[in-house]
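> forwarded from #structure-qc
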């Protein structure tokens, strides 16, 4: 299996999860009142684990495919079924919700809760999903405007990777997997000159398949590539890059497109 959770887990319906979450949040509110809002998240998690039985911290989630591997750590798992992701930030934002959603998909759990301890009052949100791994493995591929560069075909490898781990996960995972395939961070992440006319404005790092070909993965849910393509071509006009290999991973469709000058 490409995804390994190093502890037994069980799925709960929303009612049962809600009861556990209600009880846990009672402890969270007590901790926030007693400790205040200025500690690191690890302190709050340790105190919660001290008060709540059957609580595991930093549960490893391993994603592997061929020689690629990445490990995530789920902040809090209560009774092997109720995940909580803790933050100490000014406010919860979309990337925090996406992170917890990704953990739910990787652990095959339907319900979780975000908790932010930094605010004056505890900020908390439910995150839910009905998607299972077979759902996320079922997608169509669109590659009419795709051209391969380099020694190893990117499309075949990446499609096989997605058929294993599924869509809808954290985009950083997809980008890191491709980076590994092409040769690793040190080889792939390179500075590229940015120019205006004949004036050098500076250098910016891009992920490169070849010296003059970059790649980018995205997760736009609405498959309307026009705006992205327009901005990508503006980027090409102001660099020596000749093309961008773009892969957009949506729930039901994966788009492979080569964007040229």
């Amino acid at each position: 299996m490409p995804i390994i959770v190093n502890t037994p887990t069980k799925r709960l319906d929303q009612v049962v999860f809600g009861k556990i979450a209600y009880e846990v949040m009672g402890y969270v509110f007590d901790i926030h009142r007693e400790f205040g809002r200025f500690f690191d998240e690890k302190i709050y998690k340790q105190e919660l684990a001290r008060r709540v039985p059957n609580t595991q911290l930093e549960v490893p989630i391993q994603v592997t495919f061929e020689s690629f591997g990445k490990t995530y750590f789920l902040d809090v798992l209560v009774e092997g079924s109720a995940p909580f992701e803790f933050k100490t930030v000014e406010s919860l934002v979309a990337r925090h919700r996406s992170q917890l959603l990704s953990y739910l998909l990787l652990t095959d759990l339907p319900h979780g809760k975000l908790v932010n301890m930094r605010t004056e009052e505890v900020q908390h949100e439910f995150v839910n999903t009905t998607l299972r791994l077979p759902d996320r493995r079922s997608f169509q591929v669109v590659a009419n405007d795709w051209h391969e560069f380099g020694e190893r075909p990117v499309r075949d490898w990446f499609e096989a990777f997605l058929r294993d781990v599924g869509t809808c996960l954290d985009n950083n995972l997809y980008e890191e997997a491709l980076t590994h395939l092409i040769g690793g961070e040190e080889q792939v992440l390179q500075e590229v000159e940015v120019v205006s006319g004949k004036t050098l404005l500076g250098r910016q790092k891009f992920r490169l398949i070849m010296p003059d070909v970059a790649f980018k993965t995205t997760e736009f849910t609405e498959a309307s590539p026009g705006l992205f393509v327009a901005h990508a071509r503006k980027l090409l006009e102001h660099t020596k890059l000749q093309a961008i290999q773009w892969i957009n991973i949506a729930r039901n469709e994966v788009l492979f497109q080569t964007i040229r000058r």
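QC bot note: The chain has eight helices and twelve strands. The longest strand covers residues 199-210.
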